[in-house]
Write a structure and sequence with these properties.
It is a single chain. The protein is of the alpha+beta class. Among the domains are: 1-243, Rossmann fold (3-Layer(aba) Sandwich); 291-369, no CATH class. It is built from 13 helices and 36 strands. Strand 28 (520-523) and strand 29 form a beta hairpin.
């Protein structure tokens, strides 16, 4: 088949990306396309580029040899594909690794700089690539697109990522290709309008032209603003990705700061957290959260930040339970070893069931006693109601109480005959923000299927708890109400299902997840995954569930060949999600605080010349309130 050549060859798994690959091909072909062109770029995809040919592999290698770039759509299915492996091997043999661009569509793909290879948990890395790359490959994460129903260039996020791919293929700045796309789109609209106008009468032409001029100006201005925002977001993501792979601590910090300055989104906040807790940790001066006499692993609970921005922490110390006020330097010593604070920090619920009000000058007032706690309590947003499990001699009960212990309601919950349902993450509870409903996930040993759990919702009334609905879910995980209380999120094997609380019927598309272990949410857009086997604790971003930051953890070697976290090292959110704790320490997650820390470590503004050295992009940085120009 004679052909003039392709700018890109798409290699993919038909089972995984049979719908996405055509959308990517169309996006590349239409991006910055002139009205005179059929396509802006020639992209080979087997279903559109192959004629009937008895020598299928010969036809594929001919197209590969005629292509400038090899676009690998990486997924676990592609990693298991023999055909994809053959195409990778041919590309490496004829073009080398420098012409491979990886687009992640599903699964995990991480680069281990120490070993110079993909990380062990990278299930989307094809074996044909392992051990053959000398530097970190170019990776663009488009796994978010699996949740999208409209993958065209009218989707700003999709267009921004297409701009990044085109910029790499054409070896041009992202801003430049985005500007060219905006120009060509405006020009095409103008040509179309002109052609339509020529068919009208002279009077109609005058009217239409006047109207079109105004509409065109407004549309052009709006589109340019959209294109500029998309290009800026694409550049921010590029800087965030480079920050994550940077070995130089100063470069990691500067790139993360600039990424957030360009696009202050959750993903860029994750890059900041990854920089200050990872490669930049030796440069930053983290503010102390705890008084010197206490250690992070002693923390058992926290309130939300107070009016002064501090909040309160409950700690289990060698001498007993202590509550510390971080803004007023007040402390309360409480009987027992473990206490859980209400969100406002005004009360403490003991594991033994005793509830105390925290008054001025360290005074602790006994308020009431409830059945002792078998699980950590989960509080409503206003802190007045909470839910937990009580394991008594007569069986397990689901307990709902107000924060003074004066209105206790309960309902029996089924556990396995062997008690397996009482351990670890087997029980998970949630209470709606308004305190009117609860959800209970009990398992997995409640039924004959060993890895099934029972999910039940209840309405909270003055006379007790009324069951609303029940269903089964698989595996181990947590359940939570969304921030507005309109839906439930529950883990069911490898996905998080979105359910209606009153019926437990599907209320939205499920979210795919790849990390093991239960997720703990700070809010709808941020979740914390614990360390598990070889994986470090990670911050994930719903609804894509992409890992936006991995956090250090104190690890010890395990016989499995991976590492396990040390005892008592469960990662947890603190102070309403404004801090996070792992076994290796405490890190702030508030963007303003992280920016201040990073900019202090950078000694202010980074010069344009230095930033170009970090990023390989001619860009004047705006982070750290600097001009970005050399003095």
């Amino acid at each position: 088949m004679a052909q003039s050549g392709y700018q890109a060859f798409i290699s993919y798994s038909h089972s995984a990306d049979g719908a996405f690959a055509p959308a990517l091909q169309r996006g590349l072909q239409q991006f910055a396309r002139s009205w005179r062109q059929r396509r802006a770029m020639e992209v080979f995809r087997d279903e559109t580029g192959l004629a009937v040919d008895p020598d299928l592999w010969g036809a594929i290698t001919t197209a590969l040899d005629a292509s400038e770039w090899f676009l690998l759509l990486a997924s676990p299915q592609a990693a298991a594909s023999h055909w994809v492996g053959q195409e990778i091997q041919h590309c490496l043999a004829t073009k080398g690794a420098d012409r491979i661009l990886i687009v992640l569509t599903e699964g995990t793909l991480g680069w281990d700089a120490d070993s110079g290879d993909f990380s062990a948990e990278s299930d989307a890395a094809h074996p044909a690539l392992r051990g053959l790359l000398t530097t970190a490959p170019r990776i663009i994460d488009l796994s978010w697109a699996r949740q999208e129903t409209e993958l065209t260039l009218d989707n700003p996020r999709f267009r921004a990522d297409i701009a990044r791919i085109v910029a790499l293929i054409r070896d041009e700045p992202v801003q430049q290709v985005a500007d060219r796309d905006s120009t060509e789109r405006r020009r095409t609209r103008t040509v179309v309008r002109s052609a339509l106008g020529a068919l009208a009468t002279a009077t109609a032409v005058a009217v239409v032209a006047a109207t079109a001029a105004g509409v065109s100006w407004q549309a052009a201005a709006a589109e340019r603003a959209t294109a500029e925002a998309a290009a800026q977001t694409a550049l921010a993501r590029e800087f965030a990705a480079k920050s994550r792979s940077a070995q130089d601590p100063r470069a990691a910090l500067a790139l993360a700061v600039e990424a957030y300055a360009l696009a202050p989104e959750t993903a860029q906040t994750g890059a900041l957290l990854a920089a200050i807790s990872g490669p930049g940790a030796d440069l930053v001066d983290l503010p102390p959260l705890l008084p010197d006499e206490y250690r992070p692993e002693q923390i058992r609970s926290s309130s939300s930040p107070g009016d002064a921005g501090g909040g309160r922490l409950s700690l289990a110390t060698p001498t007993g339970s202590v509550v510390v006020d971080l803004s007023a330097d007040d402390t309360w010593e409480l009987p027992g070893r473990t206490h859980y604070l209400t969100p406002d920090g005004a009360r403490a619920v003991g594991a033994d069931g005793r509830i105390f009000g925290l008054g001025p000058d360290g005074a602790a007032e006994p308020l009431g006693t409830i059945p002792e706690l078998g699980t950590e309590p989960v509080f409503a947003a206003d802190g007045d109601a909470f839910v937990y499990r009580h394991d008594g001699a007569g069986g397990a009960e689901l307990i709902v109480s107000d924060s003074a212990g004066r209105n206790v309601r309960s309902v029996p919950v089924p556990l396995g005959a062997d008690g397996a349902g009482c351990s670890g993450e087997a029980s998970s509870f949630a209470i709606s923000p308004d305190g009117g409903r609860i959800a209970a996930r009990i398992g997995p040993a409640w039924s004959a299927a060993p890895l099934r759990a029972r999910l039940t919702t209840y309405a909270i009334g003055d006379d007790g708890l009324t069951e609303l609905a029940t269903t089964e879910v698989a595996g181990v995980g947590t359940v939570r109400f969304t921030d507005d209380g309109t839906a439930l999120w529950v883990r069911d094997d490898a996905e998080v299902r979105i359910l209606a609380p009153d019926t437990l019927e599907t209320a939205g598309p499920s979210m795919s997840i790849s990390r093991a272990g239960p997720l703990h949410y700070a809010h709808d857009a941020l979740a914390l995954a614990p360390a598990d086997g070889c994986a470090l604790p990670g911050i994930v971003h719903p609804p894509t569930m992409a890992t936006i930051a991995e956090l250090p953890a104190a690890l010890e070697y395990a016989e499995s060949g991976c590492y396990d976290t040390t005892a008592g090292s469960e990662s947890r959110w603190l102070l309403g999600g404004s801090w996070v704790r792992t076994s290796a320490g405490l890190w702030p997650t508030d963007a303003a605080r992280m920016l201040a820390i990073a900019c202090d470590a950078l000694d202010g503004a980074v010069s344009r010349e230095e930033f170009i050295g970090f990023s390989a992009v001619d860009h004047a940085p705006i982070g750290c309130a600097g001009t970005g120009e050399d003095s």
